[in-house]
Amino acid sequence: MRHVSERERELPEALIGRMLEIAVQRKDVISLGPGEPDFPAPKPIVAWTKKFAQFNHYSPPGGRKELKEAIVKKLGKENKIRCGPENIVVAAGSQEALMLALQCTVDVNEQVLIPDPGFLGYTPSVELTDAVPVPFTLHEKNKWEIDPDDIRKAADRKKSHALIINSPANPTGNVLSKKTLEEIADIAVEYDIYVFSDEAYEKIIYGKKHISLASLNGMEDYAITLQTFSKSYAMCGYRLGYCIAPKDIVQAMTKIHMYSTICAPTISQMVGAKALQMSSKYTQAMVKEYRRRRDLIVKRLNELGMHTVKPEGAFYAFANIGNFSKDSFRFANTLLKKAKVAVVPGSEFGKNGEGYIRCSFATDYRLIEHAMNRIEKFLK
Ligand SMILES: Cc1ncc(COP(=O)(O)O)c(C=O)c1O
């Protein structure tokens, strides 16, 4: 009998999509919803895209040689990750890389530990792999830094097979310290599990240093690192990301890639290889502006009575709405209707995200000012 699969039916619908659709359609709404840079791609990227327009063929499923070589150089220089092209798989965004890597490392009903609150892609990705997401709690009072004991509390020596960490983090803006990463490395060895290190926002960081888990001693066999061109180079629509993993996992991912998207877009790969060699001034200019907006939005949210930990990275302010509501979906919906400001309910990011809203500052400075004025008026 024809039917939609149970796998799909059980997948929660992302409310974020519906809310942002409304926000985009309605010109009177200011959206603090975006999960992508509001900046256009840097000029050299646009020029290279035109130059490489004739690259209309498939690439090898693991990625083009020149891109892999550029990635290897970048990893050595910027992330202190020593690896070769045999450790890289290029994919259509880091989200696709995550799906491929999960498919290659966890079996049906095995557990994957995920941060809560955490990026809303993790639970569905694990469930689509027919594995079981097990949340570990993050606390506002710890400035959203992972407490390794919370991972231990959630972990099961037999059933847990992987752990996902994300730094800089969406939605909290936390950047993991070296000490925490070292403790996570110890957990990986102790439980003998892979650690997926989602580093999508590695360059969107305000002062603190980004450390890749894979650069720590002994982590080369445990770390599965995910990086992307989406945020650092404002190239979301190019769909280009990559994974750094042990050779056997890379081989398995490359095999599966052949049966999913075949390869990442070839034009994007050509552009990506150049982007990695581009001056850092383009990313730095974006980060400088994000920082200005961050300082504004965090100050205003705190003044409004929504306690917000200052994000150390990424472009989201995760505001505590406890003084106003217990129901983040209802609160976000009311803000949309009454104040005409779109935000994302914290419950979208897990059970522990309830009681918060995510406000993206990948939005023009003046619009953020207007949005805060509207919220202030609404709350009075
Ligand atoms: C934490 C995090 N990881 C991964 C992604 C996916 O990025 P992409 O597939 O564009 O590389 C996102 C997108 O918003 C994200 O916020």
Would you write up a description of this structure?
This protein is α/β, with parallel strands linked by helices. The protein folds into two domains: 6-41 and 281-379, Aspartate Aminotransferase, domain 1 (Alpha-Beta Complex); 54-275, 3-Layer(aba) Sandwich (Aspartate Aminotransferase, domain 2). It is 39% helix and 14% strand. The chain contains 13 helices and twelve strands. The strands form three sheets. Strands 2-8-7-6-5-3-4 form a seven-stranded mixed sheet, sandwiched between helices. A three-stranded antiparallel sheet has the order 9-12-11. The longest helix is centred in the C-terminal third of the chain and has 23 residues, at 281-303. It is globular, with a radius of gyration of 20 Å.
Gist of the model:
The protein is an alpha/beta fold and 380 residues long. 39% of the residues lie in helices and 14% in strands. It is built from 13 helices and twelve strands.
- The counted number of beta strands is 12
- Weakly predicted, low-confidence segments: none
The sequence of SSEs as H and E is: HHEHHEHEHEHEHEEEHHHEHEEEH
Q: Give the rounded overall mean pLDDT.
A: 96
Strand arrangement within the widest β-sheet reads: 2-8-7-6-5-3-4
- Helix content, binned percent: 25-40%
Radius of gyration: 20 Å
Task: Break the fold down into its secondary structure elements and pairings.
Layout: H1 6-9, H2 15-25, E1 30-31, H3 43-51, H4 65-79, E2 88-91, H5 94-105, E3 111-116, H6 122-128, E4 132-137, H7 148-154, E5 160-166, H8 178-191, E6 194-198, E7 223-228, E8 241-244, H9 247-257, H10 266-275, H11 281-303, E9 316-320, H12 328-339, E10 341-342, E11 344-345, E12 356-360, H13 365-379
Parallel strand pairs: 1-10, 3-4, 3-5, 5-6, 6-7
Antiparallel strand pairs: 2-8, 7-8, 9-12, 11-12
Helix pairs in contact: 3-10, 4-10, 5-9, 11-13
